[in-house]
């Protein structure tokens, strides 16, 4: 065994890690398959499944393309395949067919905890299966073992001015992780297409594992919260992330993070961050480059930055109309936002047409853990007035709250009051979905993305002599 391990070590660090995992596996009789072992069984079957679907249906068409969709941000344009999660306009997100309450019920929990472990959600996104307690514990251990970030990435972060937005710092650090990409190295070494998924998997595991150290370092550098503690190899991912942010002793906050990461992880394939990761990954940019690009999209105020914007808006509202303001005063403030040509942050959605179940899950958490929090009460009051106003204003297709209307209030309650940091936590979570998608795209041999663009004159020419 030692000799064969040494020979793979000399080939590449990725091959060595794989061999180490299999060596560990074979030495424990009752050990259940690791995520990578399970994937290596699932990928060949799915390749055959996709071949069959394409042979049977590949030439069929559905959904006409309207010119409005070309000018209108491609709303509803069928263009992507992603099995990990599907978003229904009325019902909200399902992860591999499971609603948020079902995930909360079915996924393994930490001892004494009641929220799902994000490790389990990742397993579900990747395999479509509910993992065992042992399998999520192995994943926690694996991620803790991979959590250290290279010294030069620490230096990059330490040199960033605290005035550089945390999301820009986050994206810089993630992009720099490409220095040690197993995929980039394997590609340079001439890896066969059939094997792409394996170093992609290793990069994705490293990516997720390293995010708490990156997020923790940004938080402490920017907001002056002292030295980072070491990762605790015996604890789960969310506990370690909470500890790095300085909240490891607060079990309710750790539970919040478990729920937070789970519900923010994925929102089907077409949203800006998920689609950007897939698009950039399709050029065979490694997962660090692809996810760095996702983060830059998430940092926009119409997408992930909305959680920061909500808190800023709430605070401005409180400054203007005071705490415990009447419904009338809140309504006037909402109207003044709209009349100023601004959006009401945390409300509306490109796909959803009902209250976001991610909002509901957070509201239920708040009812259980912080029912009397004044800011939570204000969020409830806003929920009672904003939808009617957006309907009266007559523009927004969806007047209901989305995920970002609630998350900042929960974080603030536990003392994480620095709203410029909120989107970083969204980013840590979104890595789970983007990574799962990248692994499958490389597993199924997804091609380079290259949709067709048209000029306006070409559109006019196309319909010149046709009746309406
Ligand atoms: N406040 C005011 N106006 C709104 C609005 C809101 N919350 N939501 C939509 N509108 C407006 C929108 O700006 C557009 O106006 P114009 O015709 O002047 O361009 C009109 O209503 C039609 O928009 P839509 O078709 O209903 O929405 P879109 O699909 O174009 O955009 C959002 C979707 C999410 C960008 C939009 O609802 C919005 O800006 N919401 C506030 C920002 C926010 O909360 N973003 C986070 C979304 C979240 F789920 C996430 O990605 N993290």
From TrEMBL:
List GO terms (cellular component aspect). mitochondrial matrix
What the entry lists under Pfam families is as follows: Citrate_synt (PF00285)
Q: Does the keyword Transferase apply?
A: yes
Name a biological process GO annotation: carbohydrate metabolic process
| Single GO MF annotation | acyltransferase activity, acyl groups converted into alkyl on transfer
Catalytic residues in the record: 303, 349, 404
- Record carries keyword DNA-binding: no
Q: Which UniProt keywords apply?
A: Transferase
Q: Which InterPro entries match?
A: Citrate_synth-like_lrg_a-sub (IPR016142), Citrate_synth-like_sm_a-sub (IPR016143), Citrate_synthase (IPR002020), Citrate_synthase_AS (IPR019810), Citrate_synthase_euk (IPR010109), Citrate_synthase_sf (IPR036969)
Q: Family assignment?
A: Belongs to the citrate synthase family.
User: What is the protein's given name?
Assistant: Citrate synthase
Recite the lineage of the species: Eukaryota, Fungi, Dikarya, Basidiomycota, Agaricomycotina
């Amino acid at each position: 065994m030692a000799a064969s391990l040494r020979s793979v070590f000399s080939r590449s660090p990725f091959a060595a890690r794989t061999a180490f995992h299999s060596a560990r596996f074979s030495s424990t009789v009752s050990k259940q398959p690791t995520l990578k072992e399970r994937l290596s069984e699932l990928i060949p079957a799915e390749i055959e499944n996709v071949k069959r679907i394409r042979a049977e249906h590949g030439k069929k068409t559905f959904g006409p393309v309207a010119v409005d969709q070309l000018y209108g941000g491609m709303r509803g344009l069928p263009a992507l395949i992603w099995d990990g999660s599907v978003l229904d306009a009325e019902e909200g997100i399902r992860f591999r067919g499971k609603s948020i309450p079902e995930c909360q019920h079915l996924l393994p929990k930490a001892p004494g905890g009641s929220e799902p472990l994000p490790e389990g959600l990742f397993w579900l996104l990747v395999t479509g299966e509910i993992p065992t307690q042992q399998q999520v514990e192995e994943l926690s251990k694996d991620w803790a073992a991979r959590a250290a970030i290279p010294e030069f990435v620490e230096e990059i972060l330490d040199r960033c001015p605290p005035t550089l937005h945390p999301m820009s710092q986050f994206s810089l650090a993630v992009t720099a992780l490409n220095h040690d990409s197993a995929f980039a190295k394997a590609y340079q070494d001439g890896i066969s297409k059939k094997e792409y998924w394996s170093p992609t998997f290793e990069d994705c595991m490293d990516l997720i594992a390293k995010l708490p150290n990156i997020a923790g370092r940004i938080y402490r550098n920017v907001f002056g919260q002292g030295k980072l503690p070491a990762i605790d190899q015996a604890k789960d991912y969310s506990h370690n992330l909470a500890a790095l942010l300085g909240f490891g002793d607060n079990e309710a906050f750790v539970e919040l993070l478990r729920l937070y990461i789970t519900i923010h992880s994925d929102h089907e394939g077409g949203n800006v961050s998920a689609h950007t990761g897939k698009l950039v990954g399709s050029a065979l940019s490694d997962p660090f480059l692809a996810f760095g690009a996702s983060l830059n999209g998430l940092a926009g105020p119409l997408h992930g930055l909305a959680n920061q914007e909500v808190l800023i808006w709430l605070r401005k509202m409180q400054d203007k109309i005071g705490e415990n303001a009447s419904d009338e005063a809140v309504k006037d403030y909402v109207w003044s936002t709209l009349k100023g040509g601004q959006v009401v942050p945390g409300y509306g959605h490109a796909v959803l047409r009902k209250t976001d179940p991610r909002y509901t899950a957070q509201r239920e958490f708040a009812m259980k853990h912080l029912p009397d929090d004044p800011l939570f009460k204000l969020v409830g009051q806003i929920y009672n007035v904003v939808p009617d106003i957006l309907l009266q204003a007559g523009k927004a297709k969806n007047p209901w709250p989305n995920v970002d209307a609630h998350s900042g209030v929960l974080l603030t309650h536990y003392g994480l009051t620095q709203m410029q940091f909120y989107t970083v936590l969204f980013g840590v979570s979104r890595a789970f979905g983007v990574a799962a998608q990248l692994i499958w795209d490389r597993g199924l041999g997804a091609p380079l993305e290259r949709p067709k663009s048209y000029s306006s004159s070409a559109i006019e020419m196309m319909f010149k002599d046709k009746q309406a």
